[in-house]
Specification:
This protein has about 300 residues and is α+β, with helices and mostly antiparallel strands. The protein has ten helices and 14 strands. About 35% of the residues lie in helices and about 25% in strands. The chain has a five-stranded antiparallel sheet. A four-stranded antiparallel sheet has the order 11-12-13-14, sandwiched between helices. Strands 1-3-2 form a three-stranded parallel sheet, covered by helices on one side. α8 runs antiparallel to α9. Bound molecules: flavin-adenine dinucleotide. The site of flavin-adenine dinucleotide has 30 residues, from β2, α2, α6 and β10.
Length: about 300
């Protein structure tokens, strides 16, 4: 750690926080839970002359449900998400991902906004938010704008946020009733960062035709990403006709589309193979749920 002294700033509103970021630029950082930032600071990956602590800003920590969406404040702790009764039915994959992120101690400190804004390829909250078509509200000193989750991750550790913008809210549309979803994660231990994580979501019409398919993966490319070529194979299919051959085709497409690397957690070959396996498990899980609803 090069700089052991820093200025600690505690803004009282998102706009004030952005004004401070405008003023101090790259020598400043937003601090949410600090579970990622502290490590990056210690390892001199980031410069932290000015620490802009967001955690005292009122009204960035909430989970609110209305008729068509659930809105999650960026400062909401992962532990609050894990236990939220608002995130039910197809949205429960957000809760499941939160429950598999690190340890209870980390979850009590870490925020959903920090997880997304850090933009690690393995971020556990990313695949569920990608398949649920979440939208992100960015705030700056001059106004606000909305960005689709699908356009949020630009490259390794890079997001669509400008230097002087902060993430204020994540809005998740409530999917139609005939939707089923699934979150899966493979790690070396239950508390470890993912070797591979993924989420899938499918919606059918009243005849059982898939009208919406989303498949997203983490830790298999520089950013979390949707595998649109695999989604397209299933789109328009009758759920009662989905067999092993079709599932194999989708799984192989996922294997072809991803660009995994070898690192301390796993080899590229293992990541590719386990991605195929997770795709198969997720599709089988979702189709079983949808077929059950069709027959009931
Ligand atoms: C032991 C350990 C285990 C972990 N295990 C996992 C795991 O299993 N899965 C996983 O996904 N992660 C894991 N992590 C990583 C980390 O805990 C999460 O990414 C966490 O959600 C980060 O949130 P935070 O609030 O602590 O972010 P911070 O560290 O405060 O911030 C992270 C980055 O995001 C920026 N930022 C934060 N909030 C905003 C905002 N609202 N607007 C703009 N920029 C913002 C910060 O400036 C910083 O660059 C682990 C970390 C540790 C230390």
């Amino acid at each position: 750690m090069n700089n052991t002294t820093f200025k600690y700033l505690r803004p009282i509103s998102p706009v004030k926080a952005c004004e401070l970021k405008d003023k101090y630029g790259e020598s400043s950082r937003f601090w949410a839970g600090g579970t990622d930032l502290l490590l990056q600071w210690k390892e001199d990956v980031v410069c932290l002359d000015y620490c802009i602590d967001l955690s005292f800003i009122p009204d960035l920590d909430y989970i609110r449900k209305d008729s068509d969406a659930v809105s999650i404040g960026a400062l909401t702790r992962v532990a609050s998400i894990e236990t939220s009764s608002e995130l039910n039915h197809s949205l429960s994959i957000i809760r499941e991902a939160a429950g598999e992120l690190a340890t209870p101690q980390i979850r009590n400190t870490a925020t959903i906004g920090g997880n997304i804004c850090r933009a690690a390829p393995s971020a556990d909250m990313a695949p569920p938010l990608l398949v649920l078509d979440a939208e992100m509200k960015f705030v700056s000193a001059s106004g606000e704008r909305w960005v689709a989750m699908d356009a949020f991750f630009l490259d390794l550790n890079q997001t669509a946020l400008e230097e002087n913008e902060l993430l204020a809210e994540i809005k998740v549309p409530i999917p139609p009733v005939e939707t089923a979803s699934c979150f899966l994660k493979i790690g070396r231990t239950v508390i470890d960062i993912a070797i591979v994580n993924m989420a899938a979501r499918m919606t059918m019409d009243d005849r059982g035709i898939l009208t919406d398919v989303r498949i997203a993966f983490g830790a298999v490319a520089p950013t979390p990403l949707r595998i649109k070529a695999a989604e397209e194979i299933l789109l328009g299919t009758d759920v009662s006709t989905i067999d092993d051959t079709l599932v194999g085709k989708v799984s192989n497409k996922v294997g072809d589309e991803i660009k995994p690397i070898t690192d301390v957690r796993g080899t590229a070959e293992y990541r590719r193979e386990i991605s195929r396996v997770l795709t198969k498990r997720a599709i089988e899980n979702i189709i079983q749920t949808l077929q059950g609803r069709l027959n009931s």
